[in-house]
Design brief:
8-stranded antiparallel β-sheet, alpha+beta, globular, Structural Genomics Hypothetical 15.5 Kd Protein In mrcA-pckA Intergenic Region, Chain A
Length: 156
């Protein structure tokens, strides 16, 4: 049975977002959400899934110092032009196959020539609930109207 995943995502110039999805969703599903919401917030009109190359790199927080250890080989998904171009890896890689835990981290790089980077942190891995049918779902973690210091803190 699929699990529900809650991620925090954010990058330079953008507020953190909370993303909820299922472990049965794929890297392509996650990329669609990141481009439509997070990249749009960071880059304005230049955020389309098929507009630039993008990649994911998987990492894990290593004790005792909490440093993120990144895998050497990223999941590169060459999206350029038509959505049918070379998406099989992203389309077929279910998030559940990546061994998610609360120590998991992701780096999403978009537009390799003028890179924009989003860091993702797993906040929660839990049971799927009845409302999971509405996933994926995205919300701002710290609303733009908030003036709290939480907006300024490093959250990864």
């Amino acid at each position: 049975m699929a699990e529900a995943l809650t991620l925090t995502a954010g990058g330079a110039g953008g507020l953190p977002y909370q993303i909820e999805l299922l472990s049965s969703h794929t890297l392509l599903d996650l990329a669609r959400v990141l481009c439509a919401e997070v990249m749009k917030g960071m880059r304005g009109d230049d955020h389309g899934l098929n507009d630039h190359l993008w990649s994911f790199t998987v990492g894990t927080v290593a004790p005792p110092k909490g440093k993120v250890m990144w895998q050497d080989i990223p999941f590169v998904c060459e999206m350029w032009g038509d959505e049918d171009d070379e998406i099989s890896l992203a389309e077929t890689t279910a998030l559940s196959s990546l061994g998610w835990s609360e120590a998991s981290r992701f780096r999403f790089e978009y537009d390799m020539g003028d890179s924009a980077e989003v860091m993702l942190k797993v906040e929660k891995v839990g049971e799927m609930t009845a409302e999971a049918k509405s996933l994926p779902r995205v919300s701002e973690r710290f609303p733009a109207t908030s003036s709290s210091s939480a907006n300024k803190q490093k959250w990864l």
